[in-house]
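R.M. (postdoc): so does anyone remember the format we settled on? I'll just put the structure tokens first.
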């Protein structure tokens, strides 16, 4: 465990980049070989938009990483947060507990809030405008969302009282698992059913990308799927019935132009069918 802690405590930026690029490459190859949905669309254009958003996310995370680092250091130094208040435990149990807390506080609850709070949804809906979800969709986030999500994630890390190495381990897992559960791959049904009780699988997350409520407001999990089952936000929909996108922005010109997507959060608000009026 000491070597694992040492690695993630000072994980090189190159290695984090390799996780991101390697994951995109690996799952893109799988999508070409075993696609779940065979569809015709401008794949390179689609990938270009999503990769552009990926780059803005990388820039935001790089610029604001010091905030999370200093926040984690403060929490540990002042013994603040849930992990710091718990009794001493084996390192492996401390690691698992930390990952679960980060996923619950800094990911699940934040994602749920993005769907319930109007000003947050204005930015987050850019992720949902994608009508051809694939592995590149994992990082299709408006730079405005990247900023406030990192701030909320940092707050979650402080509440959890997580050491920096756990945060970096979680971030690395999150990047890889997000690319996996957005991937347009045909995954064995039996294996998917088993894994979906522990982690978010492609078939589970596709339901979240169905274009209309109540499915859009379900399956908020990031890495671990247990939170949706515990909090009653789990839903299922047969894969052949899923239609990607968001009902308020289904016109091609509204979801296939990078410049237009950047402007959407600042345009007149459109509540999805079923009404988000708060």
């Amino acid at each position: 465990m000491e070597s694992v802690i040492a690695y993630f405590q000072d994980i090189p930026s190159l290695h984090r980049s390799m996780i991101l690029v390697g994951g995109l490459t690996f799952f893109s190859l799988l999508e070409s070989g075993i696609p779940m949905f065979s569809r015709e669309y401008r794949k390179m254009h689609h990938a270009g938009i999503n990769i552009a958003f990926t780059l803005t996310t990388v820039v935001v995370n790089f610029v604001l990483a010091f905030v999370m680092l200093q926040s984690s250091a403060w929490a540990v130094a002042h013994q603040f947060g849930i992990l710091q208040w718990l009794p001493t435990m084996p390192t492996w149990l401390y690691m698992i507990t930390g990952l679960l807390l980060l996923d619950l506080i800094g990911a699940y609850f934040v994602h749920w809030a993005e769907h319930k709070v109007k000003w947050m949804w204005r930015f987050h809906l850019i992720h949902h405008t994608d009508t051809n979800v694939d592995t590149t969709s994992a990082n299709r986030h408006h730079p405005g969302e990247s900023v406030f999500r990192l701030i909320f994630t940092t707050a979650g890390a402080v509440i959890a009282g997580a050491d920096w190495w756990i945060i970096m381990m979680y971030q690395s897992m999150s990047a890889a698992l997000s690319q996996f559960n957005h991937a347009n791959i045909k995954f064995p049904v039996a294996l998917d059913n088993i894994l979906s009780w522990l982690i978010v699988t492609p078939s589970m997350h596709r339901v979240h990308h169905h274009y209309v409520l109540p499915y859009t407001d379900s399956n908020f999990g990031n890495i671990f799927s247990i939170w949706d089952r515990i909090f009653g936000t789990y839903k299922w929909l047969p894969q052949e019935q899923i239609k990607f996108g968001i009902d308020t922005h289904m016109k091609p010109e509204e979801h296939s132009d990078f410049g237009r997507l950047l402007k959407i959060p600042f345009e007149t608000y459109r509540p999805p069918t079923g009404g988000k009026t708060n």
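R.M.: ...and that's the designed sequence above, right after the tokens. Also worth knowing: The CA atoms of residues 110 and 152 lie 7 Å apart. The radius of gyration is 18 Å.
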